[in-house]
Structure formats: C-alpha cells, structure tokens
Amino acid sequence: MPLIWIFAANVALSQIVIETGPGVTPEDMVEKLVGDGIFFYNVTFQGADIAVGLFSNGQSTNLGLESGIFLTSGAGFNIPGPNNSTAASLNNGMPGHTYLNQITTSTTYDASILGFEFIPETDTIKFSYVFGGEEYNEWVGSSYNDVFGCFISGINPAGGVYESKNIAIVPGTTNTSININNVNNGYSPAGVIPTGPCTNCQYYNDNTGGLTLEYDGLTVVLQALLPVVPCEVYQITMGVADAGDGIFDCGVFIEKNSLSSFAKITYNTVLDPPGLTEDMVEGHVGADLVFKLPGVEYAPVTICFEITGTAINGIDYEEIYNCITFDEGEDSAVIHVTPLQDEILEDDETIILIVENTLGCFIRYDTVELTILNYPEMTSSISPGSTVCSGQTVELWVNVENGFPPYTFNWQPGAFTNDTIIVAPEETTTYSVTYRDILNVAGTDSVTINVFPVDQNFMFSYSFEKENNPNLPWDAIAEIIGNTVIVTIPDEIPIDSLIATFVISNCAAAYINETMQISGITSNDFESPVIYDVTAPNGDVRQYVVVVDIETGYNDTNPEIFTIFPNPSDGRFGVEFAGIIPVPVKIEVLDLMGIVVYKNQAITTNEVIDLSGQPKGMYFVRVQQGDNSWTSKFIIR
Ligand SMILES: [Ca+2]
Ligand SMILES: [Ca+2]
Ligand SMILES: [Ca+2]
Ligand SMILES: [Ca+2]
Questions:
Q1: Within 10 Å of residue 207's Cβ, how many Cβ atoms?
Q2: Ligand with minimal distance to 90 CA
Q3: Is the CB of residue 138 less than 8 Å from the CB of residue 86?
Q4: Which of 106, 189, 295, 571 could serve as 143's disulfide partner, Cβ 3.0–4.6 Å?
Q5: What is the rounded distance in angstroms from the CA atom of residue 627 to the CA atom of residue 9?
Q6: Residues 6+ apart with CB under 8 A from 1
Q7: Where are the domains of the chain?
Q8: How far is the CA of 33 from the centre of ligand 2 (A)?
C-alpha cells in the first residue's frame, strides 16, 4: 500500500512548545511550578515520563496560559493542535490514583501524579490552571470521567489540619471536582459542537475543530486557592488520570511560578540627574537606590547588606552605611550614592550589594549591582590665533575630546553654536567658546584674532628688482627717508617703464593717480618723481615721493662752488662756499616737489641752515648768483 504524505499548511506561525520527560525531571517541573526562591523538597512522581513536562509559547493557542507545566493521562505529543482526532489517546498502562478515584465516578488509570512538600511564605497558596481532554463531548455523562485533582495536607489557619484537601474545584463550590462530567456543555456526538444542557459551562470552552490544541474541550483558566500558615510545611499531590479506561486522554496545564509568593525586595535605581546616562558617572551622576518592600506591613524593618565591588566605599563614592531602615508605614527607603571624582583614569567600577532579605521564612540574598562610569576630563584644542585685515573672514574651530559627547558650543562674541565658525572681526577680538557635554560639564577655550591697525599706511621698502626689470644690472634698493624714496640706478638705463617691488603696511593699498599699484607687477614712468598714495583701511593717505636718482643725475653740483656738511644731516647743516664765487649769494632749499622751503641771502662763506623742523627726505640746495645757478641734493634723516 503506497504511503501518501500530505503536507498541510501550517495555519499558525508557531505552536505550543512541549517538552517531556525523561529530559524534563519531576524536580524541573516543581521548580518551574513554584517559581523562584520557594523552598521545596521530597519531590515524587507517579506516571509515564512522556505524559508530563513543560509547555511554553501558550500565547499562540487558545489555552489562556503562556507557560508552565502539564500533566496528562497519555502523551505530551498529543497536546498540540490541530484538533484532528476526537479520540487522541495513549494507553500508558499506568495505574490510577486513590485520591483521584475519590473525586470521579469510576476507577482511574494512567494517572500522572506530582507530589512535593514546600514551605509557603505567605498566607495563601494560589495557582492558575486549565483542564482539558478527549472524552469531550461524546463521553460526557459517562463513566469515562477523566479528572484533575490537587490535594493539600498541612495546618489549616482556621484550625485543625487539611487532610488531602482538593483545591481544584469548580468556582463557587466547596468540593465539586474538576472532571469531564462536572464541567461541560453537555453531550454531543463525536466531532459535533455541543449545545447543552450546560453543566458549569461558563467554565468550559469547546475546542471542536480547534486549530491549536488537540483536546476536544478545555476549561477556562481556573484558579486554585487555599489559606495556609506561612513558614509551615505543606504537602501537595496533584495530577490527572483517565477514568473507566486508559484511553481518550486528558491533561492539565498549570501556570509557571504559581506558588512564588515570598517577600521579594525590589530595587530601582534613579540616576541623579536623570536621563543623561545609563549609569552613574564619577563626580557627575549619582543615584538613588530605592529599596521597596512587598508591602508596608513589613515595616518597620532594617535590611542589611554586604558592600563589595571594585569601587571602594568611602573612596570611590561617599561612604554608605551597610543597613537601611524602613520606617513604620513606609514600603520604600533610599540610599543615595554619590560617586566621587578621583581624577584617576580607570575602568568603570562596580558597587555590589549583597542584600540579606530577612522578610520571609528564610534568609535570602539579593545581589544588586551598580556601575560607576569613569569620567575622562574634557580637553580641547582650538584653532591658532592669527592676524588679519579688518573685516577679513577667519575660520575658527574648537576640538573637544573626552567627557560625555555630544557637545554643545557657545562662542562669544557672536553666540555661535557650532564647533567651527567663521568670523570677520573689525578690531582685535578674543573669541571664547564654552563647550558642554551631555552631563552639562563645561569647559572653555579662547583664541585671539588680531586685526592690523586700520590707520597704518607706511611704506617699508621699495626697490626695482632685476628679476622684474631686465635692463637693470642689479637690484636697485631704495633708501626711504621720511616720505622720500630715493632709488639710485645706473646711468643709461631707461626709466620710463620700471616695475617697483614694495612693502607697505598690512592691509594698506598703494595708488598712483588712483591706480592701484601691485608690487612686482605694475610699471610706471619714473622720469619725474612719482607720488604713491599709501592708503590705510580707514582711508588715511600717506604720500611717498619716489625719486629715481640716475647716478650723476643730481650730482652735477660743482663741489668746487659749495659743499653741504654734514650730509645727510638731522636738518641742521652748513653750506660752505669755496671762494670761487663771492658772497653774498641767494640760497634756496626746495623739496622734491619743487616747493621752496627755505630761502636766504648768504653773506658768509659758511652759511648755517636749520631745517630740523622739516619732514625727513631729500631736498635740494640751489645757489644763484646773477644768471648762474648751482644745485646739490641733501638729505634730512
Ligand atoms: Ca481531539
Ligand atoms: Ca472526544
Ligand atoms: Ca491514557
Ligand atoms: Ca480517558
């Protein structure tokens, strides 16, 4: 007979996850059931390994519980849907259980029974569960009355003791057990949705045609509950069984951590200031460590702890005391942790508190770990200072490192907020930047941009360089005396088109007859003195007169007629006549522009002239007698 494989599309993207024994031990199941920190012992199990285990991913089904343990009268592998059988079964050949026989209508088989002892820390045992099975619906009302029970023995806080008291009962009843016949929506033929008569059907969900679970019917999520005396020992026996025969299985699902009810202390860290970092930062971000009791009824109480970790109490943070007291009526108390900045570059540090929780039946230890982040001091570098002309743009930048970036910037003047800015100072200005990291830690840096004076209009050097003037045999470098610029160049060199190289005050401009002069570029005719208007940025003009002194050109004075001594002078000099012409003679002094700045009749052969009040520069002495005249240049320094 050929096998025909039919691949059905998975209607659900995921399904309930089932893990069974022997990989899952009864201890694993109790651990899952009771939750963290509950003391339990003497775990016993009766049944087949494959009938019990753990479930998870319950939210992908209509179970109503997310995860926990299950006990069945068959096999864990029969739990997942879809519900494609009305009689999913595995007869494990296991015996029933006498407790279960007492809460159903016939002898039980294939029982799965988990038993253990434990010590509750509160006054109530409580858990949520769902019971389901395949006897639904075609065997409702029959002797195949599969069943779930949870039996507790121990001290009854109301007096006396519980003796195997079943706490899995129909809500609102005192002892109506959970079995097929007690919770259903009546009989219906296999595969048919029942329509009543109802028996506690408000707690019943039919699963005919269900996609996610195999059981034909399930209860809603029910709760088992029993008052107990905290810190006393209780015995639990819980389980399911087939009734009447070992097939058409049933099962119960119990939510995880159902018995976890000890007095937990919770811990919450509130950073100060909040919201800036994930952890404390030495010197900058502290924390309130808030201890919270499960309820005010535990106060007043003092909880102590051991303080360890790589951070040293009192050195890396302000010393904290190793106990904390909750006052009456208060369920929380706070330790403020203030990390200290130690200027040591180090790794992040930890504060570990090992808290001794003495609220419950047993001493429990919680580990609370706090981290102190190192704070590397911010450093900055800034663009170098410079000197510019008024109004010229300059790019300024600051580079910040360490601290806790990103940073914000505030430059003054200007209130700029970027790390790189462009400024155009009109006068010498110091730009200061205040930067802050996310912890609002601030640093400053500054740079001064010098602005050349706006009223400077000097000429510092002047020359005709051979490089620009090929006719010259050498570089002809001027002597600048006051506002006079004297360049001596050899005879026979044409001077009607010379290119000058000059240096003037920074930011100033030079003009000849309103034509801007470019050093090393502009050529001019120097056959007559040339006037440069050196113009400062503020418009102030200083005039320089450039005289090209052809060698011998102004040296046509006959020294035998007169000599000037000293020359150059500070303006006080003598004109000494050699006696070839008789005094008196007419003496005039002219400046380079031909303006007479001095005149006199010399009546001695050694005429003393004081022109020390005149601007420095080149001048000419002109001596006249009759129709003859003689000229000689001299210089006032
Ligand atoms: Ca089924
Ligand atoms: Ca069925
Ligand atoms: Ca069975
Ligand atoms: Ca059965």
A1: 25
A2: 3
A3: yes
A4: 106
A5: 133
A6: none
A7: 17-255, 266-373, 379-439, 459-550, 562-636
A8: 29
pLDDT for 576 equals 86
User: Cα(140) to centroid of ligand 2, in Å?
Assistant: 9
Separation of CA 552 and ligand 3 centre (Å): 137
DSSP 256-300: TTTT--S---EEEEEEESTTS-SSEETTTBEEEEEEE-S-GGG-S
Q: How far apart are the first and last CA of the chain?
A: 131
> How do the residues of the chain divide into helix, strand and coil, expressed in percent and rounded to 5?
5, 45, 50
Query: How many whole angstroms from 85 Cα to the centroid of ligand 1?
Result: 4
Q: Mean pLDDT in runs of 10 for the chain (637 residues)?
A: 42 78 93 84 96 96 96 97 95 97 97 95 89 97 98 97 97 96 97 94 96 97 94 96 97 87 86 90 93 92 95 94 95 95 78 93 91 92 94 95 94 94 94 95 95 94 94 88 87 89 95 96 93 95 89 53 85 85 84 84 86 86 82 83
Please tell me whether the overall predicted TM-score, pTM, comes out greater than 0.70 for this model. no
CATH fold for the domain made of 266-373: Immunoglobulin-like (2.60.40)
Q: 78 in helix, strand or coil?
A: helix
Q: Which residues contact 498 (CB under 8 A, 6 or more apart)?
A: 464, 469, 523, 524, 526, 548
Determine the Cα–Cα distance for residues 48 and 91; give it in Å rounded to an integer.
10
- Taking only Cα atoms into account, the Rg of the chain, rounded to an integer number of angstroms, comes to 55
Ligand 1 centroid to 144 CA: how many Å? 15
| Burial classification of residue 390, based on how many CB atoms lie within 10 Å of its CB (0-12 exposed, 13-18 middle, 19 or more buried) | middle
- Closest ligand to residue 242's CA: 4
- How many CB atoms within 10 Å of residue 198? 13
Distance (Å) from CA 58 to ligand 4 centroid: 23
Name 337's Cβ contacts closer than 8 Å, sequence gap at least 6: 280, 286, 287, 288, 289, 317, 318, 320, 351, 370
* Cα–Cα dist 521/505, whole Å: 18
- Cβ atoms of 382 and 397 within 8 Å: the answer is yes
The CA-atom distances, in angstroms, between 23 and each of 49, 66, 79, 505, 632 are 9, 21, 18, 94, 125
Q: Do domains 266-373 and 459-550 have the same CATH topology?
A: yes
Determine the topology of domain 459-550 in CATH. Immunoglobulin-like (2.60.40)
Asked if residue 184 lies in contact with residue 136, where contact means CB atoms within 8 angstroms, the answer is yes
Going by C-alpha positions, the residue among 375, 400, 401, 397 that lies closest to residue 384 is 397
CATH topology of domain 562-636: Immunoglobulin-like (2.60.40)
Question: How long is the chain?
Answer: 637
In the reported structure, the alpha carbon of residue 208 is separated from the centroid of ligand 2 by a whole-number distance in angstroms of: 9
Nearest residue to 144 via CA among 179, 178, 168, 169: 179
- Residue 110 CA to ligand 4 centre (angstroms): 9
Distance 104 CA to ligand 2 centre (A): 18
| Amino acid at site 273 | P
Which pLDDT score, from 0 to 100, does residue 357 have? Answer: 93
Give the Å distance between the CA of 247 and the centre of ligand 1: 12
4 C-alpha to ligand 3 centroid (Å): 28
CA nearest to 185, candidates 142, 136, 148:
136
Distance 52 CA to ligand 2 centre (A): 20
Compute how many other C-beta atoms are within 10 angstroms of the C-beta atom of residue 5.
Answer: 4
